[in-house]
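From the thread on structure requests for the teaching lab: each student submitted one protein with a one-line request. Submission from student K.M.:

"Model Alpha/beta hydrolase from Catenulispora yoronensis, tokens only."
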Amino acid sequence: MNDSAQRGNVVLVHGGFVDGSGWQGVYDALTADGYNVAVVQHPTVSLDDDVVVTHRVIDAMSGPVTLVGHSYGGVVISEAGTHDKVTALVYIAAFAPDKGESVNTLIADPPPGAPVPPILPPVAGFLFLDRDKFAESFAGDLPLTQAAFMADSQVPWGVDALAGAVSVPAWRSKPSWYLVAQDDHMIPPPAQRAMAERIGATVVEVSGSHSVYVSQVAATAGIIKQAAQA
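Reply posted by the TA:
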């Protein structure tokens, strides 16, 4: 185990439509390098609840925490990251809202020509992605069998979670990093770059789909290590 073991803990927060198991590759890479890593399994029903669940994981850590969010997880870490133990924020192809903003406000005015995520109409307050278009939109650089499994194991995303607005954005008081996925068909790369610039993040760009945290493990783990060691 190398000296990075002394640099604290990493907490990984998943996005909408998926659960924390997608982080396994990143988890394996970080733990192999001596980091203490926890994966939050939040239900994505409401932002308030997801923040409570995330704080529960952070509370269980001893020492400083690097808090990482993918996609909607960026909203969660923006709200949860004001926790005293959090020393750095890492956004992986993620939403980075300011005060009063939510997923809904951030996606309300897409740029011309941007791909439209194939989100089906809500049923009983929950959203799913069109299974037949899941691979193309969410996981374009993963094997088709893996993308099909992700499509069939979707976690229903609560419309209340999309409406959850950030009260005090943690990036205003904590240093942040942002991994831009250049081939993302869920959050347009220009929108990712604009959010990263707005929050003053240290930016890394890689070729990858919205599932960049699955397909580009080395790059994802690398930017998390940068943040943890800064």
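TA comment: The radius of gyration is 16 Å. Residues 1-5 have pLDDT under 50 and may be disordered.
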